[in-house]
Specification:
With about 280 residues, the chain is α/β, with parallel strands linked by helices. The protein has a single domain, classed as P-loop containing nucleotide triphosphate hydrolases (Rossmann fold, 3-Layer(aba) Sandwich). The protein has 11 helices and 8 strands. Helix 6 crosses helix 10 and helix 9 crosses helix 10. The longest helix has 21 residues. The chain is globular and about 50 Å long.
Length: about 280
Amino acid sequence: MAFSYSSEQLSCCLDPLVRMVRGLRRSGKTIIIGLQGGQGTGKTTLATYLAAGLSGQGCRVVSFSIDDFYASYEDRKRLSAQYPGNPFYEIPRGMPGTHRTSELLSALSCLKSGNDVDLPVFDKSMHQGNGDIANRVVSVRGRQDFVLFEGWCIGTPQATSDELIEIMHKNRLSDFGPMPAAEHLEAVLSHLGPYQRLWELIDFLVMLIPDSLDLHERWRLEQEKELIARTGEGMTDLQVSSMVRHFLPLTCLCNAKIVSDVLIRINKEHAFYGMTSPKSQRG
């Protein structure tokens, strides 16, 4: 969703965040900043703002999304076939297991070491909105001061199906549709192991949390309409709604269990209105 930040958002959240991140800069080091938030929260827009603010102060910055490391269309179809009847793997992408985690680990490690790397690009408009790996890369050369690494699932911890079901009940996810079977949740959770090595490379994590879970669907629908207007291809409203609702269990898991360095609250107008530091408050 394209929008501009108000003066209130800049003063209460955005400019203090730029100063906070800029203060992490160390000569000869690359700092990886994770930007985490559920569907439609504005992670990409925030990454763009941070990149501009940091580069404007003389920092070398590269920004990319975990989405660019989705597996190919064919590989995701094969993964889906492994779980017949599992609604989490009937949606086109996004669930644990649909990313190329080994390649992403290699890319993050290269960036952290200051080595050159070619980052892939994922085109979400291909195959009627199912997406596929594009025939182009983003070349990163030389050590960067900051890497902005954004995505809805960044930092997702491991959990048992019983833990996740309890969190889902606390968040009243039954209001959004039928509760998924435990065996389907277990399949999703079984893929989280390889992701934990990725999260260990993150030096500073920023989380975006809206005031209400239903806002994720509203905002993600708006994003898809913009994609269709720009490219002529994308998912239907029904596909988007189904995808977002299946992301909600893991979104709630992240909200419940991740202790971030910075937490930004978002109201129904999609405005940032509060910033806290949960990790420092925990002590």
